[in-house]
């Protein structure tokens, strides 16, 4: 081990060395099977305490080892052996051998080898034995720690040959045949590796295989971690020199140390594949320490210590940093949930419902009218006995009374948790949630099995089909537990029924079940508790009190650890004691609900009725294991997968959610690496959530939300140990879909015009523009009458402004108005594109425009307006909408095409975005809004309040009575000034600011107002136009402009405006008049207007509000 | 915010409105400083910071009053809801008026987002409107009044019995209105403004106060 490495890892060094010590003792405890098993790691502990007499057994052993080594060294030097056949070889003799261990020791002395009295993975290179008990053969890795197990004849033959022979032929047959094949496991992943790299690697490795060990040791010193792998490879290859396929996979291991190692270490994930390979893999992770210690350096014990310290630290960093499970496995999330028991249980209900759909729904209906407090009710609670274990061992009757547990890992040092243990195992004190290593310490012969989810599902299905056959009121609690209501079935003997059900379950599934019968769900459950395992119990109403009296409180459902502790403080241990407390004081102490529950339950009262299926309130997924990120990219990649998972679950349940909560487990500052391998350890839990207006299950929206949420944390991704995403405020997808489907951009695009969609993709490079298109299309989608017209405009717009390369649309799709209003240079350009047909088209279009009730209203062209105004509005309601909208569209189009270049269009559309905005929020399609990028959405929302008032202006449907007047032609306003008021009245009553704005064109000052109005982007709020007007107004020579008529028109305008707004938007009026008052100080014109209009205003306010407007 | 399917748009708007009024009235009371600021705690509603009364009775008063409005709001019977601050003589000094119009003919569904965003602007505006209001004398009181378009018959419904006629005197002179915020998002149109007594009246009031 070089010093560089120790320096580089010095930061971790102290904590790691401390931890290693702990581990070392833990290791020792686990090596009991080996008889004498004291690792040289414990030596490290002793060196520091050498001066003191042995503080404990381990330091004594370390000392003894030192002494034995010194003895051996001195004897070796005394024997003056010059022969060094065995240099670098250090043997440990296990059990009875011929020749005896003492003879072997003599040989080693003589021929330069070493002999260890006590096994240590760090000193020993070979284990010599001639026979092994079966248990050791089965668990060969735990026994040999991956070291070669060789027959003693190897030593004798080597001496005879006077050179170190390869030990491979001398390997113990039992072990050699037992060697598990990695190939089965690795071929899946590594098949993509090309053949030639593997042969290459083989070439490199081959010489080492033949080699003597010192060289390997040298190699190791250069690249400790790699060399560890190397040695591994060498050994493996010599182990199985016949087996080519396994050779290859071993080489892969070296080639891809990072990824493969991770898979090795990920007990949880990979284990499901096969428990055998698992066994092997787990020990592999521990191999490096074994080999890091070259046998030649034994003479300096202190350096041992150093190395022992250093290597683990480098290894630790190696495993925690390189071997990111979330990093290296691209499908981590998927695999994680594939192997998660909780996930299985969580999603089981969904599968159950799908399987028994009619039963579970029909049940619900039946329940609602059933009498809750039926005295003679009979409830049966059926629960499978240690379901997860018994399903796995149902085909292995030999294991029936052996301690068996289900767990991800079989490693005796593993930190994977026991998920279920059978009754023999429980008698050893093994409980669910325990680490395997603790369980194995309690019961060394514990047999562990991996999960078998298919089997669980199969058995659960069998279980439920039996239950459903017997009873039509079944409430599933979990995959292995259910309540049955036999009240209506008039059962003669419930016990008989229960035993027949249990018998049937056993015969079908070969797993036992326990049953409890009671008058309600609570009692049935409590009865099951007494009945377990494999029994049944009937608590008749008479026996309820007796039974409950001595029942510990924590046996009641709903009483967890916290509540139990609280009750203990009140010295309440049994239900009998609980009954002493009055309901009131219980409710005071524990809250209304909990108090009542305690009071009821302690008396055996339970009003719940069988069959009420709780709707899930939130759906989500948490990953708290194996989460390690190197950088933001990893984290985002992980989140994307998590979103997919959550989205799938939502879809599975057929719901959509509105609130999204991201939970993050952040490593506490001072927290060590967790005890559980790749676990989350001591963490802070942080959450952020966001609620969106429209429920969704869309994975892309989810991803966007989640990314945003992650940003809220301001967290270093390296600190993240767990992530969960939950969706709540669930809504049924079907109903919400019906409502929104027709409004979504997508459906509109697909149904409305496929070509638009296509165009949009063309425009993909010009993102902004297409966003505008989104706005516009949402618009169009709302006003369905206008939509088809607008689509065409849209296409044109895109073509003209954005995408000059694509082919122009057919002539018939062009909007005449637009073409006509194009600047001349653009028009000629377009004309060229269409080969001169445009001119004809325009001429034709003019006629068309006049004959049809055209919507196009050119703002720039007075002539067009003349024509326009001649036309009566036949259908004012939709027209009003389309009218203003069309203008907006045109405006943008004109501007956009005027510049003709892509980038400038983008820029312009930015400014003109207001035009495209719907005039009020109510016109916005929320689903569209949702799909707009965040920043854009913010801008839109920011702009919307300014448009607020147009909501009633532009939606005349509010006041249908007024629209009738609208059919009067407006052209009169121009021709005969006398009727101007009337005309204004009409147009204003219709509430459309744009149309009355046109009336000002004959007055130079008011024309200005109109221009400003146009420039402001057709904002219908007068208050937003006025300030600009004032600033412009100063430039005009006002003294020349003040005519009575102008003042009159202005007054009339304001009057109309007041009339329209007073009832519903006094704020707008207030703002306008305060502005006006301010202008009045500066301008004579406005002061006249203000003075004229003010009495009218106050009268109007008084009419509506019974007071006068307070003008400060 | 999950609304029942069968609810009318008016009903939906009314229930949102009731929720909003509770917050807004608390905000007004907080703004006017009738109670020490310690009597309120910061909360978040519709994503803006609002105040909530700490004292359970105060909270209950506001909550119960506004909830009592709900059935009438749904029917569109409530013309305005006012928070009235008055002095010891029961002469109102300042009124905060919520004038409501619930469009009964509106048929389509309510977009919760619109309402929320519009209503939120009220709360935002209110929090910066202190300068528009008058300073109150130290020993003033306040109440919530509801102006109904027609008086509900007391015997008929339980909800109606909840309401009692107010003792507060009316202003004799015309009053002044200072609009704060208006919004209209179908089916709900809401205007929020302050009413002050006319200058002459308020000066009389001030004199009267000084005599006291």
TrEMBL record, chain A:
One of its GO terms (molecular function) is metal ion binding. The keyword Metal-binding applies. Keywords: DNA damage, DNA repair, DNA synthesis, DNA-binding, Magnesium, Metal-binding, Nucleotidyltransferase, Nucleus, Transferase. It comes from the Eukaryota. InterPro entries: BRCT_dom, BRCT_dom_sf, DNA/RNA_pol_sf, DNA_pol_Y-fam_lit_finger_sf, DNA_pol_Y-fam_little_finger, IMS_HHH_1, REV1, Rev_trsase/Diguanyl_cyclase. Residues 81-172 form the BRCT domain. It is found in: Nucleus. Its cofactor is Mg(2+). Belongs to the DNA polymerase type-Y family. This is DNA repair protein REV1. The lineage of its organism: Eukaryota, Viridiplantae, Streptophyta, Embryophyta, Tracheophyta.
Automatic annotation (TrEMBL), chain B:
The chain crosses the membrane at residues 12-35. The keyword Membrane applies. Residues 11-194 form the HORMA domain. One of its GO terms (cellular component) is nucleus. It comes from the Eukaryota. One of its GO terms (biological process) is DNA damage response. Its main location: nucleus. Keywords: DNA damage, Membrane, Nucleus, Transmembrane, Transmembrane helix. It is found in: Nucleus. The keyword DNA repair does not apply. PANTHER family: MITOTIC SPINDLE ASSEMBLY CHECKPOINT PROTEIN MAD2 (PTHR11842), MITOTIC SPINDLE ASSEMBLY CHECKPOINT PROTEIN MAD2B (PTHR11842:SF10). This is DNA polymerase zeta processivity subunit isoform X1. The lineage of its organism: Eukaryota, Viridiplantae, Streptophyta, Embryophyta, Tracheophyta.
